[in-house]
Amino acid sequence: MKRAWPDVVIALLIFILCLAVYDATLTPSLSYKSPDGNELATVCYTLGLAHSTGYPLYTWLGKLFTFLPIGDVAHRVNLMSAVLGAAGVALLYLILRLLTGNHTPAASRLAAAFGALLFAFSLTFWSQTGIAEVYAPNLFMVALTVLLLLQWARSRYFLWFWAFALVYGLSLGTHMSNLGFAPAFALFVLLVEWRILLRPWVWLGAALLFFLGVLQFLWLPYTATTLNDVNMLRHAPTTLAGIYNYTLGAFPEFKFAFPLKAIPERIVLYLYLLAQNFGVVGILAGLGGMAALLWQRPKHFFLLMGMYLVNVWFFVQYRAFDVDVFFIPSHFVYAIWIGFGLSALLSGPAALLHQAEGRRRAAWAGLGGLTALILALVLVGQVQANWEANDYSDDTAINDFYENVYELLPPNSALLGRGGVFGYDMFYFRLVYDYRPDVAIPMIDGPHPEPEELAGRPLYTTLPLQPGRGGGSPWSPPSELVANDAWYVPVLLGQSGTATGMMTRQRPLVLYAVQEEPPDLVVGSAAPEHPLGQQLGSLELVGYDLDDSLAVPGGRLHLTLYWRGKLPHRLLIATALGETPLESHQPGLGNLARYVKEMQPPRDGILVEDYWVVLPSTLEPGEYPLTVRLQSSLPTGAEEPSAGESITLTYVTIVPKETL
Amino acid sequence: MSRERTLLIAAGATLIALIIAIAGFSLGVYVGVHGWTAGPPSVAGPGGRQPRQPAPPPDQDRGAKPPQDGGQPGPRPQLVGRVRSISGDSITLDTPQGPRLFRLSAEVQVFRAAEGREQPASLSDIVPGEHLAVFGYLEGDGTRQLIAERLVLLPPPPDTPKR
């Protein structure tokens, strides 16, 4: 790279393009797209301690982003993934330019831009640029580390080497697995300049700077008191053994979790994921690039191959349900191979173009333009194919739900729910914005709150507890906090309501009032404000009450439905506002079977469903029909004849928030 | 070509050949065990969750997607047993280990095993008493609840009267 400025401009353009796309698909605030995202967003703001391996650098960078005057705190941390993800892609372009520096400049630039953008809009990496997660920032750190190492290899200037060592040490604070790249880095350094061993001040300086980067992990014991997760507390980093268990020794049950016999299947899984990101053609192109790199730059080949093999070897044997994201560094290396192979392929014709004259030159130029167009179309296809899967821009369910929860809770009540890492959908509002300080949130301080903390407070929960089992997971509140025979009465239904499985894989968002007495679920007679008497399948909708037909986006409606008749088989009751589904729930809001068994109501009684339903904040102002319909509880569609039938209750007017 | 370069290229070429051989061997083992299958292997191993799928084109109705004719089940079912009860999107099976509850995923596919092949079937075919093999993943949120992605209706065992 003799003239650097065109590449800096191209890298900048790539950064802007990627950032624009990532920002367009960014999650507005909290989300369940990542199991840890809500915790990470909160911890960045509070400067607490994240789950293993602690992620100090991520936390500090995230804190810087929380100062941006854009959106809420979670949005700003999501934005960090977009910004650093886009920056990582720009660095990938520069890495490819360094590697293909001896190719024809036009071919090198075209191939480098293509390789970088192909990676940018690949399914897995893109998915991590829209949420608060460590993988996009970590890719930036990995790319920066490799770029600095390549710069040193090119110039042999020791300051590049020292910068590499410092950044590499720091990169462990975005993902500990980067440590596995050390053998590949060491081999590359020795292959390029083994005499470095004869200059102890260079490598000792580098070792010191690496160690300086690693010192960030002193953050762990310093902030260990902020931990509230049952599993993290078990290995709290307050001793040297604790620090080891929290970092290098974390998640032992996930590591090397498969017997040798299972490895072929795991490798096939990896190949499947690779094909999902680059396609079979991309895999073949990468193989070609791998061979070309070996032929042209064998030392660099061993650097990249070492990184690649360590990442694939380790994570192929890692048992995590979201294992695809752990392969991002190896996908990054694979994109380098694809770019390098393409550059090598295009360099020959590009050289001919350079030498040709007259008509022949025009023909070669035309061919070059056509190639660029085809590559651009491939990228457009990649963006189109992966856009919907990675577009989280309308994911407002958690914020809409909890904003309403904190508004609805009575004074001095107590709110239970999942704790630890998975409780930050609830904790976020208290820890970041100090919502409703009068409401006790016992799980915020740790996994074992004392029952006395709840004494005298009206009790609410987002997770019904089962006698003796709590909520069924280590993060559930202890079951002794609530009487075994308590009733869990749904008060507020969020976007996924009580129909688990109906709305992708989103956790149901329901606020339950915990009470000793059952609700008046079945009554002998009722006088709804709006009588209807309309049949919906085997049920008759006797009528309904609606407190107010004027609402705001992100607000809620108070609805009471009165039903009579035979309960439908495998059907849910679903409400919608225009085309927007609001919630779906089992008849009787999940309490009917117990109610019938214990209360023995009249057989021809009227079922009363009284609840609040959250309105998505993505609703545009306007007038919408509020409809009730029956929906198959089986996710593949209408299996029952009455599924899909609907009744329009009334029209609801959505007005801008400032209006009310 | 320098001796060092020759050595490096020879070692690298061996490495690439080894990688291709391992990948080919793994694919061969996989196909040998499972046959040619459109479905990917489980992400987390037995009981693992399936990887993210790219979104279908807008004009493709996900709900109406027909199951692939003759599609093979995944590696091994997470549950096999007789349907005891169906409630909403939850089904309870009587298994040799006792009753087991699982939930249906949004994209669950149903097949009926007949004459050594699997024919497409529908959820309405699942009624109490049917024998069922359940392929799916465990919810990764700590609840460890089984989410079914593929159900295969099995012929009744010879000594079990069909209800």
Number of strands of chain B: 6
Please, how many domains of chain A? 3
DSSP summary: helix tally of chain B: 1
- What does the largest sheet of chain A look like? 9 strands, mixed
Strand content of chain B: 25-35%
CATH class of chain B: Mainly Beta
* Number of strand elements of chain A: 14
Main sheet: strand order of chain B:
1-2-3-6-5
Please trace the helix and strand order of chain B, writing H or E for each element: HEEEEEE
Counted by DSSP, the helix tally of chain A is 20
CATH topology of chain B: OB fold (Dihydrolipoamide Acetyltransferase, E2P)
The assigned structural class of chain A equals alpha+beta
Q: What's the multimeric state?
A: heterodimer
Q: Tell me, rounded to a whole number, the average pLDDT of chain B.
A: 70
Supply the CATH architecture of chain B. Beta Barrel
Task: Give the N-to-C terminal Cα separation of chain B.
Answer: 78 Å
Helical percentage of chain A: 40-55%
Helix and strand composition category of chain B? alpha+beta
Q: What share of residues of chain B is helical?
A: 10-25%
Key terms:
heterodimer; A: 660 residues; alpha+beta; Immunoglobulin-like; five-stranded mixed beta sheet; 20 helices; 47% helix; 14% strand; B: 163 residues; OB fold (Dihydrolipoamide Acetyltransferase, E2P); five-stranded mixed barrel; 1 helix; 33% strand; elongated; disordered C terminus
List the helices and strands and how they pair.
The complex is a heterodimer of chains A (660) and B (163).
Chain A: H1 5-24, H2 37-46, H3 56-66, H4 73-99, H5 105-120, H6 123-127, H7 135-155, H8 158-171, H9 182-193, H10 200-214, H11 219-223, H12 230-234, H13 240-246, H14 263-296, H15 298-316, H16 328-355, H17 358-390, H18 397-408, E1 414-416, H19 424-433, E2 459-461, E3 487-493, E4 510-515, E5 522-523, E6 530-536, E7 539-546, E8 550-551, E9 556-565, E10 571-577, E11 580-585, H20 592-599, E12 606-614, E13 622-632, E14 646-654
Helix pairs in contact in A: 1-4, 1-5, 2-3, 2-4, 2-19, 3-4, 4-5, 4-7, 4-16, 5-16, 5-17, 7-8, 8-10, 9-15, 14-15, 14-16, 15-16, 16-17
Chain B: H1 3-34, E1 79-87, E2 90-95, E3 98-114, E4 117-120, E5 131-138, E6 146-154
Parallel strand pairs in B: 3-6
Antiparallel strand pairs in B: 1-2, 1-5, 2-3, 3-4, 5-6
